[in-house]
Amino acid sequence: MKVDGKHFRSIWFNQDTGRVQIIDQRWLPHEFRVVDLVTRADFAASIRDMWVRGAPLIGATAAFAIAEEMKHDASDTNLDEAWEELNQTRPTAINLRWALNEMRDMLRDIDVQDRAAMAHKKALEINDEDVECNRMIGVHGLEIIKKIAARKKPGEVVNILTHCNAGWLATVDWGTATSPMYHAVQAGIPVHIWVDETRPRNQGALLTSWEMNSHDIPHHLIVDNAGGHLMQHGQVDLVIVGTDRTTAHGDVCNKIGTYLKALAAKDNNVPFYVALPSPTIDWTVRDGVAEIPIEERDDNEVTHVQGKLPDGSIGSVQISPDGTPGANPAFDVTPGRLVTGLITERGVCAASPEGLAKLFPERVQG
Ligand code: MRU
Question: Which of 115, 187, 227, 230 could form a disulfide with 74 if both were Cys (CB 3.0 to 4.6 A apart)?
């Protein structure tokens, strides 16, 4: 999507320098910084410390990490070591393991001297496929927005609430939850977005708001607790969120606080959709609450807030008393029964084993 009118992906291979580059998201929206990822340590840190984040982008970054690794040591030992180190960087987003497996499974079958070239090609393919999946999510999600717009008076806005950043910054391009929004704007449907700030890391405040600003999409930033109130007062037509891992039974793991939004949406008859490319489905898992590992992050993210200080520098301030410990589960699971539908690159389906099986029959086990 666009930054100051210029097209960017969130990660790319720079042909001129031969380096993988990313938008370093730690500094947005206050500073736009592009950095090179060179060593395995760079790639691992970029995922672990959230220079890049969002399930699809984490997967795309891991694919490039393996590709770069193969350029200096394409041995099985190095491949396995890199797989292990990268796989440990973040535990919840399944796209990480998916991309690492895609790379390793392909590389295992080919000669060591051919691996660097093949890994590079495969990483580019994984990145391009992510873009196409997210574009198609937008095409299918647009139909949902069109139906809601058709029930309104001409010109009346469709109010969409979203949580965290499931935008183009969380993918290679387009975003998952945001792709239907971008497509709606392109189709001339007036939309207005309620952007949850998304404590503690504030991905909504920092990143989704920045995306909406960059594309002139009307929006308001709201505190995480405002959503239920807005739904009670008819100010939300639709919720669309992303996911870090969706189970074969349709349970959806996403940024902490998503579950509460789904409960409020259910109580107020507001449609609650989850947008995802198929690599976000973990076909080995059924019960999301019991089986998905939830990342516990540093409590410093809860007790402190990062932002722009009056002198223009970016800094962190403590908001809790000295000595109060924080607890920081980064994700929660919304059971499929609270989800109106899953928007995938193949279409929209029920968040159930049957719904997913209809769209992905090849994944149904015998
Ligand atoms: O901790 P983050 O910022 O990586 O969490 C991101 C989310 O929870 C997104 O909603 C999810 O990855 C879907 S992104 C298209």
Answer: 115
Q: What phi, psi does 68 have (nearest 5°)?
A: -65, -35
pLDDT in tens, the chain (366 residues): 989 989 999 999 999 999 999 999 999 999 999 999 999 999 999 999 999 999 999 999 999 999 999 999 999 999 999 999 999 999 999 999 999 999 999 999 999 999 999 999 999 999 999 999 999 999 999 999 999 999 999 999 999 999 999 999 999 999 999 999 999 999 999 999 999 999 999 999 999 999 999 999 999 999 999 999 999 999 999 999 999 999 999 999 999 999 999 999 999 999 999 999 999 999 999 999 999 999 999 999 999 999 999 999 999 999 999 999 999 999 999 999 999 999 999 999 999 999 999 999 999 875
Write down the number of H helices and E strands in the chain. 13, 18
Does 196 qualify as catalytic in the annotation? Answer: no
| CATH numbers and ranges of domains, the chain | 2-128 (1.20.120.420), 139-363 (3.40.50.10470)
- 244 pocket-lining for ligand 1 (C-beta < 6 Å): yes
Which atom number of ligand 1 is nearest to the Cα of residue 177? 15
Q: Give the β-pairing of 158-162 and 238-241.
A: parallel
User: Does ligand 1 lie within 6 Å of residue 10's CB atom?
Assistant: no
187: Cα separation from own chain's centroid: 24
| Given the residues 244, 251, 282, 332, the one annotated as active site | 244
* C-alpha–C-alpha distance, residues 66 and 83, integer Å: 8
Going from the Cα of 256 to the center of ligand 1, the distance in angstroms, rounded, reads 10
Q: How far apart are CA 359 and CA 330, in angstroms?
A: 29
Residue type present at position 121:
K
Atom of ligand 1 nearest to the CA of 55: 12
